Amino acid sequence: MLKIAYHPIYAHPLPEGHRFPMLKYELIPQQLLHEGVITSDNLFSPDAVDEATILLSHQKDYWEQLRDLTLSAKEQRRIGFPLSARLVEREVRIAKGTIDGCYFAFEHGVAFNVAGGTHHAGSNWGEGFCMLNDQAIAANYLLAEKLATSVLIVDLDVHQGNGTAQIFENESRVFTFSMHGANNFPSRKEKSDLDLPLPDGTSDDQFLSLLKNTLPQLIEQQKPDFIFYLAGVDVLESDKLGKLALSKEACKARDRFVFEQCMQNRIPVQVSMGGGYSPQIKDIVEAHCNTFKVADELYF
Question: Which UniProt keywords apply (predicted)?
């Protein structure tokens, strides 16, 4: 059964009038339920991740300032949201949802988090709407619990996974792969194990060709026993922040190829949804829902 982490706080951590950026996290499961792709049995509600697990990836001082709501105004501006207890609760539930998803992925091959993909959070900073790095936390958890010995993070969001790269810069058991817009946020990139910066206007064929020429070789070289996939839909041509030119069909083909590689190599994969900023919310939701539909079709 396809298992999907979801909690109402994913969509509603902000005051009334500031919720549009997070509305998709409520609409995605609603749409999947409406279309009959899933039932309520597919959804699970995560608790909060414990502090010891957070501290495998984030520095103690940073986490305590986040927890105690004492980050400076400058640090909060870098995150992009005014800090609140609900926002912190959202982050710790997202991280636990990604960890829980790993267990479901071991059982079923694939599992999802409706939110997550908070790849701009580094060990001692938050930025770009990211405060705790859910997939980094989960990857370090798997290593600490000896549930994995080699992890591959496949980040296909339009923005570089700078926080993920920084967290794992000295961790040889985690290979970070980021394929992103060269001229996009963040302005200061970190160094992933493999960065593939894409020029503005990259087309369907260019994107898919590069991915197909890269990912199988990476899997062969690294031989991971677990994969984290960040499936941002801000690669779409319609995205107001993305600068690339992918169609929804190519975005869906991207997802299919990643899942097929995981299946062929019998590697469990946890999927977090990442960014999506098209002006029409229906375009964002449809593209994200396609990722779930492809996984459901292939695995179940």
Answer: Hydrolase
| Phi, psi of 55, rounded to the nearest 5 degrees | -75, -5
Tokens of 108: 């079923």
CB 98 within 8 Å of CB 91: no
Helices (H), 153-264: 162-167, 204-222, 248-264
Phi, psi of 57 (to 5 degrees): -120, -25
Domain range annotation of the chain: 4-299
pTM for this model (two decimals)? 0.96
Q: Tens place of pLDDT for every residue, the chain, 300 residues?
A: 999 999 999 988 766 555 556 889 999 999 999 999 999 999 999 999 999 999 999 999 999 999 999 999 999 999 988 899 999 999 999 999 999 999 999 999 999 999 999 999 999 999 999 999 999 999 999 999 999 999 999 999 999 999 999 999 999 999 999 999 999 999 889 999 999 999 999 999 999 999 999 999 999 999 999 999 999 999 999 988 889 999 999 999 999 999 999 999 999 999 999 998 898 999 999 999 999 999 999 999
Q: Determine the 3-state secondary structure of 90 from DSSP.
A: helix
